[in-house]
């Protein structure tokens, strides 16, 4: 009987450790993604107190996007130059006309626009857990319509680290993971 009780408790602990924030994803039901060959990543906005969060996430997102070898990705310097043509803007304030203009200037069929909404280190006793949330969307540049969007949250503390009190992932590792998972969500 003790053996079954132990297995039941172990099962509950494992199930409790597997919980987490589920992503929210939108995929345009009538869009042919085969049309998208060249994309650009507009530098992400930072909506956190972590001053480097958006720049870090933008760099990791571009690197992970290049690694999957699905799209031709516009160089970040070219993106900055094109952004200068329409004026210094916040991503949330871009109009459809500006999105179309930037897409035309870069020869890109779609733009990734996003924001980092959480980048923090949460302390619990002697343990620290890093958390990052990325809200990113893919906007096609012919009409400025959103064709894909996701919100992903990643924590740097897995089940085993929580169970045994060991250190979790660094903020860089958490940021890289959330960027990779967002991209995998798009291409899978």
Walk me through this protein's architecture.
By secondary structure, this protein is α/β, with parallel strands linked by helices. The protein has one domain: Rossmann fold, CATH 3.40.50.10610. It is 40% helix and 27% strand. The chain is built from six helices and seven strands. Strands 1, 2, 3, 4, 5, 6 and 7 form a seven-stranded mixed β-sheet that branches. The termini are far apart. Residues 4-19 have low confidence and may be disordered.
List the defining traits of the structure above.
single chain, 188 residues, alpha/beta, Rossmann fold, 7-stranded mixed sheet, 6 helices, globular
Short description:
The protein has 188 residues and is of the alpha/beta class.
Task: Describe how the helices and strands are arranged.
Layout lengths: L1 H16 L6 E4 L10 E4 L3 E2 L6 H16 L3 E2 L2 H10 L10 H11 L3 E15 L2 E14 L5 E10 L3 H6 L6 H17 L1
Parallel strand pairs: 2-4, 2-5, 3-5
Antiparallel strand pairs: 1-7, 5-6, 6-7
Helix pairs in contact: 2-6
Overall mean pLDDT: 84
Query: Would you list the SSEs in sequence order as H and E?
Result: HEEEHEHHEEEHH
Number of domains: 1
Tally of individual helices: 6
CATH architecture: 3-Layer(aba) Sandwich
Low-pLDDT ranges: 4-19
Morphology call? globular
Give a count of the beta strands, DSSP E runs of length 2 or more. 7
The fraction of residues assigned to DSSP E strands is 25-35%
CATH superfamily: ABC-type transport auxiliary lipoprotein component
Terminal Cα separation, in Å?
Answer: 45 Å
Q: Structural class per helix/strand content?
A: alpha/beta
Q: Could you tell me the CATH topology label.
A: Rossmann fold
Q: CATH top level? A: Alpha Beta
User: Could you describe the largest sheet, including whether it forms a barrel?
Assistant: 7 strands, mixed
